[in-house]
Each structure stands twice: as C-alpha cells, then as structure tokens.
Amino acid sequence: MVGYHVLERMSWLDAFHQAALLLSGVGSATEITSPGGKLFDGIYALFCGVILLAATGLMFAPVLHRLLHRFHIEDAGDR
Questions:
Q1: What pLDDT is recorded for position 77?
Q2: Count of alpha carbons within 13 Å of 16, Cβ hemisphere only?
Q3: Distance of alpha carbon 67 from its chain centroid, rounded?
Q4: How many domains does the chain contain in total?
Q5: Which one, of 76, 78, 7, lies nearest residue 41 by Cα?
Q6: Parent domain of 22
Q7: Please, are residues 11 and 27 in contact by the beta-carbon 8 Å criterion?
Q8: What gap in Å lies between CA 14 and CA 27, rounded to an integer?
Q9: pLDDT at position 55, please?
Q10: Which of 7, 14, 15, 34 would be a feasible disulfide site paired with 1, CB 3.0-4.6 Å?
Q11: Distance (Å, rounded) from C-alpha 45 to C-alpha 40?
Q12: What pLDDT is attached to residue 35?
C-alpha cells in the first residue's frame, strides 16, 4: 500500500484496493502511469506470485510425503 500511495499518489483507500486486487489475482484496478509505479507494480506482482507458490508448496509437502510413504515409494539412492 505504501508503494502505491507514494509512487502513484493514490489515496490510502485506493492503494488498499489496488493491493487487494493484485493479491487476489484479479489484476489492476486503476491504470499505473508513472515509471516508478509500473516498476513497483511488476515487482510486487512477481513477489506475491513467488510467495503464493512457496506457501502452496509448504502446505502440500506433508501430503505428498505421506502419499510417498503410503505407496512405499523410495528414493533411488536407498537400494
């Protein structure tokens, strides 16, 4: 929100709305006009995507690990 407020001169409410829509995957609510704002918007979107993938991987790692044990799938190096 701070990036949108400072770089794009958005109000706090508009900055919150922009950040919430970007995090939810909807996309931009308003057009970003300044070069700094566009750079911030792109980096913020990529960062949020990486965090989403990492969090999803951490949540499903125990499930996958349990499935591997359930079906007795071992590593190739354990022979």
A1: 58
A2: 3
A3: 27
A4: 1
A5: 7
A6: 2-78
A7: no
A8: 14
A9: 95
A10: 15
A11: 8
A12: 94
Q: Report residue 68 as tokens.
A: 């591997």
Per-residue pLDDT of the chain (79 residues), as tens digits, is 999 999 999 999 999 999 999 888 888 888 999 999 999 999 999 998 899 999 999 999 999 988 888 887 666 555 5
How far, in Å, CA of 7 to CA of 28, rounded?
A: 15
Residue 34: what residue type?
A: S
Cα–Cα distance measured from residue 53 to residue 76, given in angstroms and rounded to the nearest whole number: 27
Helix axes 12-24, 35-70, angle to 10 degrees: 40
Between vectors from CA 20 to CA 3 and to CA 12, what angle results, nearest 5°?
50
Q: pTM for the whole thing?
A: 0.70
